[in-house]
Amino acid sequence: MREIKPLQINGYLGREEIASHLQNVEYIVMAAPSMLDAPRLPIHFTIFLNTSDPIPEPIKAAVFEKFCAEHAITATSDLLFEPGRVAFARTSQETPMPRHLLDPAEANMIPWVALQVIDFLGDSSEFKEVKEGFSGWSYSYC
User: For the sheet containing 73-89, what is the strand order?
Assistant: First the structure.
C-alpha cells in the first residue's frame, strides 16, 4: 500500500494575485476522498464557479446536472450550492489549490474571494485516484 502524504501549503495568494489568477478561469473541480465515517458515497466534490453573482434556483439545478453528466457522477447527496469564501494555497502543484474557508476566524487571516461553491458527496468511475486516497483539482478555462 502506498503512503499518501498531505500537501504542504507554502502560503496563500494575495487578493491581487487571486484576481489575476482567476482571469479566464471558468470553474475549478476539486475531488477528495470523503472524510465521513462509512460514507454512502466515496468522493467529496467541490466545484468553484468563477462568479459571486447570485444564481437563480432553476439555473443552479441545470448547472449541477451538467457537471454531473460531464464527470459521470452517478449518485449525489448532501448538496450545498451557495457563495463562499475561497482562498488559494501555494503548494508543490502547478496550480494553486482552492480552499473553501468555513471558519470566520481563518477567513480573517487568509486573503480570499467570494465565489459560488457547489459542494457534495458523489460517486464516479472517472475519479479512480480519489477512491485510492488521493485528492486533486482541475481548472477549466474559457
Answer: 97-101, 73-89, 113-124, 43-49, 25-33, 136-141
In-domain check, residue 105 = yes
pTM: 0.91
Tens of pLDDT, residue by residue, the chain (142 residues): 455 567 789 999 999 999 999 999 999 999 999 987 777 899 999 999 999 999 999 999 999 999 999 999 999 999 999 999 999 999 999 999 999 999 999 999 999 999 999 999 999 999 999 998 899 999 999 9
In a domain, 10, yes or no: no
8 Å CB contact between 67 and 47: yes
Residue 66's domain spans which residues?
A: 15-141
User: How many domains does the chain fold into?
Assistant: 1
